[in-house]
User: What shape does this take?
Amino acid sequence: MEAQQPTARIVGAGIAGIASAIRWARKGYAVHVHEANRYPGGKLSQFQLGDYRFDAGPSLFTLPFLVDELFTLCGEDPRDHFNYLKKTEECRYFWDDGTRLTAHSDPAEFASEAERVLGEPAAHVRAHLDLARRQYEATKGLFLERSLHKASTYLRRDALPALAALPSLKLTQTMHAVHAQRFRSPKMVQLFDRFATYNGSTPYQAPGTLAMIPHLEFGFGTFVPYGGMVAITESLVALAERQGVQFHYGQPVERIRVNGRRATGLLVGGTELSADIVVSNMDVTPTYRRLLPDLKAPEKTLSQERSSSALIFYWGVRREFPELDLHNILFANDYEAEFRDLFEHKTLHGDPTVYIHITSKDLEGEAPVGGENWFVMINAPADYGQDWGSWRAKARASVLAKIERALGIDVAPFIEVEEVLDPPTIQSRTGSDRGALYGASSNNAMAAFVRHPNFHRQIPNLFFVGGSAHPGGGIPLCLLSAKIAADLG
Assistant: This one.
């Protein structure tokens, strides 16, 4: 008699859930993905406002080989299904005093520009980017590509470089301290400090190990998927479906069923659905609180400080702005006060750093001719019941004032259509606890070790992926979480 195909059920069709579906299908499982929304992707989705298209969430694409390798795993050429262009510049930076700096993709060119504009010796910039590269290369095999929570990880031969590189990891310093020690220009310190926001943390508390983050941009580059960021979701869903994966939209999971030391399946719409393995792509906090209420929860992990969230204005602008590119940062004048407001006071800063993302700079059809699609974001605290209704109006005024000070432009008269996304809405749409974008913050040196592992210690067929699990948030780390979990299964 032919053996019955084992079944994998995945909670959530975020990017980590989709990647997990592909990997478990390749392991021989019949895979079912249950998604509460009527669309895949979670934060990595899109919407239309009139003639303007917007990516709803993540706007930065790095390490594209992590997407490509899923196609390769399935024996397909990724270029037949998913394509992207590489940017020649990473970001444009603006300050209220009129200073403007273009961060070119080429590290040497960026260093020369920093020296010309900010008076920061190019050698300092090159040395810091070299440190970021060494930190990344020494730790990627230990911290990013394998479980931190398995003893076998530390016994591997390739763990030795990470252990040998401990002095360069700057675990006992904050990111800000590392940057302040390296650079003499306050603006250059601020520029590198901002990379702490890539995992929703503050550079004044996050460990100096995170100084490696710029290497993702300057070492590998930044990219734009043709079709927008949502093309990552769409191409991987199609790949999963070609592997036999079944997606079930509009099907919120009510419980993960556990019997003894085994996850036995899901309760969906009052129906018991059996499974041989269960993967949760839901934030770990609601996974335990709602789906596993009878299971002892890892309270130390769940009680960690939440990462920052975001307040996003999506503006269809009926004018073009040549001074802006795909990624643009307009810096706050008091960066430390901004982060203090976010994490200590749980409030919005009056003079926020503004990020403007405009895909119509590189892609056709994103906006009407002569117009641009502006994704305008400020960092926000996680939701603790603040008055977001009144805060949205105040934040809008602050953002418009910042744009006018930094660019000399009153953009308000050109806004044709508008939508707003705040932390409570992020939580309701994606299940992210308190709307935090990255689960827990990384505001202490041990945060990575307290983050939830990709497996359950007592239930060997229950796995966890996505931004709230190891190794963290953002598209690359979510994709790596899916790989780690599948490798453990």
